[in-house]
Amino acid sequence: MPAKRYTPGQALLLDCLKDPHSVTTLTVRQWSLLLRMAKICKLTAHLGWLIDQHNLGHSVPEKVINHFQAAQAIVAYRRRMAFWEMNRLQRALADCNTDIVVLKGCAYLLADMPFANARLFADVDILVEKSTIDRIEQSLLAQNWQTLKLDDYDQSYYRVWMHEIPPLRHVSRTMEVDIHHTIIPPSSDLQPDPVLLMRDAIGLDNTPFKVLSPCDMVLHSAVHLFFDSDLSNKLRDLVDLDQLLRHFGTENSQFFEVLLLRAKVLGLQRPLYYTLRYTHQLLATPIPDAVLQRSQEFAPPAPIRLLMDSLIPMALLPEHPDESFQTVRFARWLLYIRSHYLRMPLKLLIPHLARKSLVRFTRSASIT
Amino acid sequence: MNVGHYSLQEVLEKTSRPQGLCFEVGPFTARLRSTHKDFINTFRLLYFDVPVISDDQLIDFFIDMRAPKSHRRWIRPQIIARIDGQEPFQPFAAIHAMPLFEWALNWSIARQGQHHLMLHAAVLERYGKALILPATPGSGKSTLAAALAQRGWRFLSDEFCLIHLRHGQIIPIPRPTPLKNESIDVIRNFAKDVVIGPLFEKTRKGTIGHLRAPTASIERMKETATPTWIVFPKYQSQSDVIMEPLNKSAAFLKLATNSFNYTLLGATGFNVVKSIIETCDTYNLCYSNLDDVITQLDVLSNNAR
Fold first, then answer.
1. Is A325 helix (H, G, I), strand (E, B) or coil?
2. By CA distance, what is A322's nearest residue in B?
3. DSSP 8-state code for residue A60
4. How far from chain centre, in Å, is Cα B279?
5. pLDDT, tens digit, for every residue of B104-161?
6. What is the rounded distance in angstroms from the CA atom of residue B145 to the CA atom of residue B178?
7. Of B60, B67, B2, nearest to B31 (Cα)?
8. Whole-angstrom Cα distance, residue B215 to residue B217?
9. Domain assignments of chain A as residue spans, ordered by start
10. Which of A303, B133, B173, B281 could bond to B122 as cystine, CB 3.0-4.6 Å?
11. CATH number of the domain at A76-212, please?
């Protein structure tokens, strides 16, 4: 995508993410815009962290530092809550004698990924073997975790069509626990074998929890962003992928080779293709040319490729909070429909969407 | 240049532009956009002395007060607070725009002020020393603070006691005080030259009238103050003034549980509360007559001078 298609705010945000040194020349008005853009996609603390990493704090105005500090205080709080929730889970599930793999934000924390400390996240996600999920749920319910209030439709939707059971939350805490038996809804075309993921998960010091192997961590994050979300304002998730690739790519020179192979084994070529393409394009993630070349064979047919090239950046990148463009709203709507279509065959999707919009309609009608 | 320097028409022109009207709220900056004339009129009255700044400064809060995009724009009109692209609240009746705006500002401060310890308290200052009046239900702290502000105390804040995490000083954030129900007349009768905005009836807290912050406290809002006394007020009809020292551990708990972000700040929050509890004198205060209680608090401040 040519640079001229970014709005000034998007360009500022991407420049800062690609090269934090770009902040040394910002005017106050640009700082103001950068902070607003970062806030929409929950990247304020991340920018503060990046700037610290590059020792650029001296070129940041005092009032901007306040914003970073405030955002980092919130992140630190959520992190404490997450560690506490994991601590309680570990105690509650000690008798279950089964492997528990922590996913996403909490996994980055446990695996000591540097960027995890500036990442805002809302819940604790875990992956367990499907055969043990009832036992785990019952055990937690018996120990004062509760199923969040859902109607019967939502309950059965989760149980039948989702890759996770309805979220649980301890009666005296705020952190949600999502328990998965695989990483994508079973009705999706993608069918990575959860047994392989569990088998290759990595044990850690100081915790009985496991985390996915580096390749699987990337692939899970890729599936989640490109095949299980509407991508709207999800630049943060692309930043996760960028950071994971940078981290593992530096740690292991063979990483990208292994990643390509692993994607084939799990049947996750397409999400990997999107990951490599858009991290490289939007965030200048250092990916060897040969790897980019080889990932071309995972690309969708040309018309879809071109369509996605125009839709995905439009949806991922935040809009200026004072402006909203019809084309962007349309792009996001298309990707919203796509996200549902990917998760469910049409004969399920249409009744589901009809029901959701009916509920939304009656709800909004009852408010006004 | 202050808000009141401009005529209503000029303020309305500014708030109707895309770049809005930018102004200072204590340590924060805000941009307001709205075309609602009645609301802007009230805003101008209550924020009369507040400094207007140019829009090329760093702005913390972006608040638009605007009509919904539905029939409620015309029929039983409503108003929406849009805060930096988000709409966190249900619409209000359009005539209640001012309470909604104040609520939006409170929400913004509570969310973005995490580089302070934020206590739910009124704060006044005399001779550089700050009196913290935490807000417990039935405390009457707004009325007491408003009365003190008319008797030689500098008004720093009615809602947010902002304590800087690094130097532990209190940062003023003088804004209009929402007086509720009987308090409105109490303050009107207490001092003749106070400015109270239009009364808003049937809000969630009954009738509300906003008391404009004293000009002097807006002019001196960059001057911080040292936390010195923490007094937990309790209004009790017919009571004499009874001020009793409160032991520090009890004061710690009362203060911490009355904070907006004590839990969020974790160890930092604990350390800041600990240090202000250690350096401040802590009291429980029972009162009914404002003149009597002010005499008592003046003694406190004179003795420490």
1. coil
2. B85
3. S
4. 24
5. 999 999 999 999 999 999 999 999 999 999 988 778 899 999 999 999 999 999 999 9
6. 11
7. B60
8. 6
9. 1-60, 76-212, 213-368
10. B133
11. 3.30.460
